[in-house]
Specification:
Blueprint lengths: L2 H30 L15 H20 L4 H9 L10 H15 L1 H4 L20 E9 L4 H11 L5 E7 L4 E7 L5 H10 L3 E5 L1
Antiparallel strand pairs: 1-3, 1-4, 2-3
């Protein structure tokens, strides 16, 4: 691998990270406690398929460069240079980069494991008439990581019986005891994640 290929590998890693940045940010927000930044990179979601394509192309080309048969001139050149190649020009390094890029590209599929279980202490219901189920229309969620972040933050409120967020449907279904928590508080908790409530029913 020459310097040109090294630059391509770097570009592949960057595009792999960028492709999943919208899903990595909510996890980082959870870890840091700054949930308001969870949706910071959601604007990148439409570019995700292109970034994945760039990553796959760049890494495939880097592997081709590394594995293609060498010409007689390249073999001759290698014989003249007996010094060991730098680690960044080895197949091992390229393999590590490929594994890292794959982990980044597939991050949205396993991001939910970084969130605490969606278990809630049982809410004592004093009056059945106080129980409400409201579906919030939420803008800005792009993957399961976003939905998990929203569920995690809403579940912190007292009086929440259950919460289920779906990025595919762009909704959050919240069952709650209105004597303990208000619609406004729930909406504020959702908006506090960086995603935005655009309607409710």
């Amino acid at each position: 691998m020459n310097k040109k290929t090294n630059r391509l590998v770097g570009a592949g890693v960057l595009s792999a990270v960028a492709a999943s940045l919208c899903c990595i940010t909510p996890v980082l927000a959870l870890i840091s406690g700054a949930s308001g930044v969870a949706s910071t990179f959601s604007w990148m979601e439409p570019a995700r398929p292109y970034l994945i394509g760039i990553t796959v192309f760049v890494l495939a080309f880097a592997w081709y460069q590394k594995l293609k048969p060498r010409t007689a001139e390249e073999i001759q050149c290698d014989c003249e240079e007996d010094e060991e190649k730098p680690f960044m020009q080895t197949k091992t390094f390229l393999g590590i980069v490929t594994i890292f890029a794959t982990l980044m590209l597939t991050f949205p599929n396993y991001a939910h494991i970084f969130y605490p279980p969606n278990d809630k202490k049982e809410v004592v219901i004093l009056n059945e008439l106080d129980i409400q189920l409201v579906t919030f229309d939420v803008k800005g969620m792009t993957c399961n990581s976003c939905a998990s972040q929203l569920e995690n933050d809403v579940n912190k409120l007292s009086g929440i019986i259950s919460v289920y967020a779906s990025y595919e449907e762009a909704t959050a279904k919240v069952e709650f005891d209105q004597s303990k928590v208000s619609l406004t508080q729930i909406e504020e908790a959702i908006n506090g994640t960086g995603y935005k409530v655009v309607g409710k029913k």
